[in-house]
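Researcher: Quick test of sequence recovery. Tokens follow.
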């Protein structure tokens, strides 16, 4: 079937009142959270109208589309809902074999969708092309083609792509874009020289380097061959039919024994073997002493007794700190520190540094007195 690819434009207008409340709209396919892939919606601010637009394809012909439109009043929190039914029908006017896509730099998509603006553009194209039939095929925002959001200065626009179709070949003016001279200028980011640009310049600024001319009759269709899917892949269309309840249930007891009981039994056997080896096969102190010679046992016991005696004696002795760790004189007063040990102290316990009393020719450091 050949269907007429038109623009279902539905302006979601706000209720006329003096308050001018901010109202936002939400659109979705009935029973689904989003819109169809061919349908787009745009609303700039809560104080502006919403525009619902798109271009359905041949596979949507004869399938009514119900769009749920929900309006939210941001001031009073009121909600209203309306169902929009879009009937897509076929037409005999298409296809139009010669299609040209223009990029208009000074327009936004909602401005271009206005009937008077779109009519002026089609009229300018008709004067240049001179076809018998001319229709708009598709309108797309530049943001949907990978364009960037313009800066909010100098009233810049995001741009819009408009595709039109006609029943006659392209005019010589449109063919000027394909000339080598203009292609060179486009590669150098310069505007090409187009003789019919003045007929658009008054209202529409067209980027002639981005124009696309397509002849459907010369387009070679490409068929992609897909491999034959196996038995485990579901078909692309149709519903999934689950298996019936008459299938036999599977017994998983044997799988349980293999995956859980057998490893547990092996681990338990290894645990008993390890416990017997470590607990029941130990020699013990008595068996070790029976296999040791008597002279070795006596020697070992004497060493233990001597060690215990030395440790007990070291706990009871009281030895002063050696003089080598004490200061020789008082750093503030200069007074010599008296020896810590008496004269009759045992010489074997003397520290490495001699006492201050045994030093000859002691020098007393004079104390500094403050002047005045």
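Model:
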């Amino acid at each position: 079937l050949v269907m007429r690819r038109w623009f279902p434009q539905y302006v979601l207008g706000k209720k006329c009142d003096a308050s001018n409340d901010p109202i936002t709209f939400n659109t979705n396919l009935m029973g689904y959270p989003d819109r169809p892939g061919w349908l787009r919606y745009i609303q700039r601010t809560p104080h502006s109208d919403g525009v619902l637009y798109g271009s359905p394809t041949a596979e949507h012909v004869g399938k009514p589309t119900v769009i749920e439109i929900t309006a939210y009043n941001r001031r009073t929190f009121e909600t209203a809902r309306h169902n929009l039914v879009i009937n897509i029908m076929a037409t005999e006017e298409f296809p139009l074999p010669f299609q040209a896509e223009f990029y208009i730099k000074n327009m936004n998509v909602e401005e271009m969708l206005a009937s008077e603006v779109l009519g002026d553009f089609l009229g300018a194209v008709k004067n240049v092309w001179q076809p018998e039939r001319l229709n708009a095929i598709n309108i797309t925002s530049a943001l949907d083609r990978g364009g960037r959001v313009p800066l909010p200065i100098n009233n810049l626009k995001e741009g819009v792509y408009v595709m039109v179709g006609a029943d006659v070949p392209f005019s010589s003016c449109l063919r000027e874009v394909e000339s080598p001279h203009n292609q060179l200028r486009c590669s150098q980011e310069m505007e090409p020289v187009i003789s019919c640009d003045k007929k658009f310049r008054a209202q529409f600024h067209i980027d002639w380097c981005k124009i696309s001319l397509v002849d459907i009759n010369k387009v070679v269709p490409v068929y992609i061959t897909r491999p034959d899917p196996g038995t485990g892949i579901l078909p692309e269309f149709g519903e999934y039919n689950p298996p019936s309840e008459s299938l036999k249930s599977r017994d998983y007891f044997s799988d349980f024994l293999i995956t859980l009981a057998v490893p547990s039994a092996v681990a338990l056997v290894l645990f008993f073997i390890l416990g017997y080896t470590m607990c029941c096969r130990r020699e013990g102190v008595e068996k070790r002493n029976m296999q040791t010679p008597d002279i070795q046992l006596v020697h070992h016991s004497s060493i233990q007794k001597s060690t215990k005696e030395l440790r007990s004696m070291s706990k009871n002795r009281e030895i002063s700190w050696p003089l080598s760790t004490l200061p020789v004189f008082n750093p503030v007063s200069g007074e010599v520190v008296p020896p810590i040990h008496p004269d009759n102290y045992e010489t074997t316990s003397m520290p490495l540094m001699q006492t201050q009393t045994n030093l000859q020719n002691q020098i007393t450091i004079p104390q500094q007195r403050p002047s005045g």
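The longest strand covers residues 65-73.
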